[in-house]
Amino acid sequence: MQLTEEQKRALDFSRNISVTAGAGAGKTRLLVERFMEIAVKKYHGRPRLARKILAITFTNKAAGEMRERIARAVEEHLKNAEDPAAYQHLLGIRDQLNSVAISTIHSFCARVLREYPIEAGLPPDFSELDEMQTNMLMNRAIDQLFEQVNGEQDAEKRAAYFELFQHFDPQKVKVLLRRALLQPFEMAHIVRRFEQFADEQAYFDFVSELWLNAIRQLWPQQALRQVMTLAGHLSDRLLPGASNNAVKKHQHMVSLKTLVAKPELELEDFRKIIAALEAFTASSGKAYGSLRQFGGKKSWVAGSEEAILQLSEHSAHLLELKQNFDPGPPPQQADRRYYHLFKIILEMYRAAREFFEQLKTEIPGVDFEDLLIKTLRLLQNNEQIREELVRRYEFIMVDEFQDTNALQWQIIELLATEDGALQPHKIFVVGDPKQSIYGFRNADIRIFKTVKEKLALAAGVKNAPEYPGNVVLKNSFRFLPRLNAFINDLFADLLQPQAHNMYEVEFEPLVAQRTAMEKGRLELALLREEDGLNEEEYMAQTIDRLVRQEKVTCHERQGDEEVERPLTFGDIAILLRSRNALLAVEQSLRRWNIPFKTVKGVGFWQKQEIYDFYHLLHFLAAPSNDFYLVALLRSRLFLVPDHVLFLLNQQPGENYWQKLSGELDGPFDEGHRQKLLDIRALLRRWIEVRDAIPLGELLRMVLDDLKYRTLISAQINGEQLLANIEKFIDHVLRFNKSGMNGLLELIRQVELLIEEDSKEGEPQLNLDDRETVKVMTIHAAKGLQFPVVFVPYLNAKNVDNVRQAVFMEPEIGIAMPFRSDGPYQSKDFCLLNLLKAEKQKRELAEAKRIFYVAATRSSEHLFLSARIKNDAIQRTSVLEWLNEFFSRRGVDLLDRQTELFEAGDYRLHLVYGYEPQNREGEEIKGLFEGLEHLKGELQKPLDVDEKRLQLYRPLQERPGPIIFSATRLMTYVQDAQNYYQRYHLGFFESDYQLFADNIYQMDDSLVKGKIFHRFLDLLAENERDDDALLDRIFFEFEVFDGEKRAELEGEILALKEKIFQSSIGLQILQAAEARNELTVMMHLGQDFFTGTLDRIIKNKQGLWQVVDYKTNRISAAQVRELARQYEWQMKGYALLLSKLYPQQEHFPVALYFVHPDQLHEICYTSAEIEKIYAEFASLIEEIKTKYPVRG
Predict the structure, then answer these.
(1) Phi and psi at residue 194, in whole multiples of 5°?
(2) Do 902 and 983 belong together in one domain?
(3) Which of 81, 453, 625, 1084 could be disulfide-bonded to 87 (CB atoms 3.0-4.6 Å)?
(4) In which band, very low, low, confident or very high, does the pLDDT at 1009 lie, cut at 50, 70 and 90?
């Protein structure tokens, strides 16, 4: 394929080049071509000079791919070389490739530091710390700091710490220190500026100026002057005897009139303006519709109504402009107080930093940030080394430059500077500002624009767009023309620079280089929640139709030709903004029997397979801890059934390890007894070697002993599970190599990573198969493309307004909210509000770019979808942007009238529903088809020796005792077919939550109920900090979506308030004796009955009583009817309570319905307990008779 004119301009190595490459513009090919242009032409006859090229990539994977592509390009040139000299030169380049510096910026810096360790202040044998090791040392440093604080003897310092913790929760202070330690470069910037403030007033002036700049950006001067002028005009139109309301409004008009003549408004002026705007509008910020709110017509001169209402409208407009990035009220006394509090925080930060550096020195080791900062300091402080590196690298190429930050650019700039100025030909950067979506990794989109300006100025060109070295690649080789036209039309509207938001980027139209004008489908599905429609079902049904029914085609490149072929499942991707809806997506795909692969999700440390090994490590450290041993026995590692654990508990011994180490007498069947003996032998073997071999080798031994790789690979998504386990072991191996040995240290660090919701991603899987739909996050899809892409959930808010512990911006500062029970009524203050507004600007701009990345992963067919409730479009959602886009083109998305939108060269289909289909049993049908295939494979004879056959034990055909719960019994009573599918066939146990929702017919109130129960449990344990409790609970229940968190937070706190205002609620919550989360198991004939009692309390009669919270939104009149639906549950609670306290003669059970504040109580007698026992036993016998195969 021939290079375009723009690509040829980018190959010019006589000047510095910046390339802005749109999606599908061929930037990767361009990097390879530029390398070859320099190595083959400029260095002709001197192949060793290829090592003078430095190539920086964003990931190790990208570095490997670039090296591989260059190697292929060299081989291609060798095939076509006719001149012997050229051939020899190419051979020389090939020989040098392994020595060429192609790496990430971190790897490059590591090499520099290893070359000059003494000059960088490092020992030559330093190690590179990974995230786990860094977090471990950092938390240890913070712990040391707080030990020092707690032991402080100096009275003045103790008073300062006491004052700090009066204003901020100590745990939040730890979070702030952790954030500061993780971003030392940015923190150094904040510290330097703070140290320049001479006193409190200087700091207050700084914050005031920040606030003034923010409000001036939001409010256009003309609009502001218009309001003040109009108010001044109306200030002399008040009539004598006007109402008090009119007089108050008039006072604000007079106040604004005094500001009209001022050339520049000051802080106090804006206080008056804000007060006036709020007085001229409703509490919601909307304009008034009549003069009634201004005191009525009798208060004003005739003919004033139109002008007054106009004033209200203009005021509402200004408040609306302020709404998205609201900097809050101007600075107040709280900001002056923060100046003094931050001095204390800074002192703590410096001490923590010292502890942290000392701990790293003892290893010795450097973290990821150290690699960059120490390299920067080396280049800044050692001119000889800098000049040596400048001479060593004649050309610097940087890929994915939109993801660079200020620290990385400073390093690159120093390598390209000579005699105080940028060298004129050295730098080549390529990227796409529209694809900058790594803000959470500190990428700064503003750097790209700054560098383009610097390159132009270095060449004597003042206007960056006029500099020939700033190249824009507009030709796209990815999209079919129809899709290309849609992307151009939509994103030219959506991506536009804005004066008040420097994080917004400009869209450059793309020119499609592919043909097939009539190919490719564009579809936007708008599904109403009231119609019972959902996006998961829409996607699954559409995928089924595309592949199995309509036989849609796509294209693939073969040489220089595009060949049309049938679409396969592997050509399709579902791209998600977050993992919140992942379970529902997977369930729908299974229901439609669509093969899929979930790719590289986030939340690596919160995966069940990681928990399993975490429990193993805990057991090895403390075998007598029952919690971790039981968790280990129940895990995938051993799969010990609960009834066997119950029998094990009957064995003599003080703990489970002693019980497992005993004779194992009793009613075990021989198979289960032998299994426990085998487990015991393995655990003893691992305990014996735990201190003798490295922990990583120990975990590999565990995998080998259990044949775990084979077991896990056979499970759904087994490839990802196994990759996660291998990645965990790699972390442990690096932990060992760093010199930080010790099982307890490792456990502590893994625990912290789990609790802190580390954003570590899962390992990348092979995506080349054509058999599975790929389900992944948008971030994981960056750099990939698929013929068909689905982008759902477009009606979700994009700006996360949920509580955040710490806000940090280098140009502004770092802050956290005041504690709710502190000296100030509000948690917020001006600096904090400014930080929040800046964060919202970043997030909103990045959200638009994330949508751009998602849409441009498609090369041919694009399907967008959103679910709408009551025609409500969420603020800051993609659907809001789409609605504004179509409104400007005369289309109202909510009127459901337009089915086809045509504009220019594209056609967008709008669909408002689909035909619901009953897919019950389809996943079972699919599974049986898979089992039949597997059966055929297994029946093929294999050449396996007898020794290997002994590794496999046949499962017993006779089922053991069955464990029943109240939910399981109720399921059978209500719907035997559902019971059969769920418990007899055992399909899709991971979908239990969705299944349970259907049983109780409570939508997501079951999840809310569980979260609310957990909240009250923790409250009862005297954990009174609502913020900390909510953060902990949302983590436990994997609620990461900002909109969902905000919704749940409001409901939970409202319910809490309801309970605290109720005598019933307080009696339950503040019971003198109470226990939470009790799991009880008891014999029921030959089987077992189990359940969890959320809370039991000792009532006024001295009896232990079960209390279950019910959060249904019902009236008092509905309580009795709904309580009947929980009859089986209440009987089950009573039965379990009788097992716990058999000495009682009565067993009270209460359901507390929170919303109507009603208690539904039943007190069961011993005789009634016997009847319940017989009733449950009879029902279980009926179930076992009807479904005798599986326990």
Answers:
(1) -65, -35
(2) no
(3) 81
(4) low
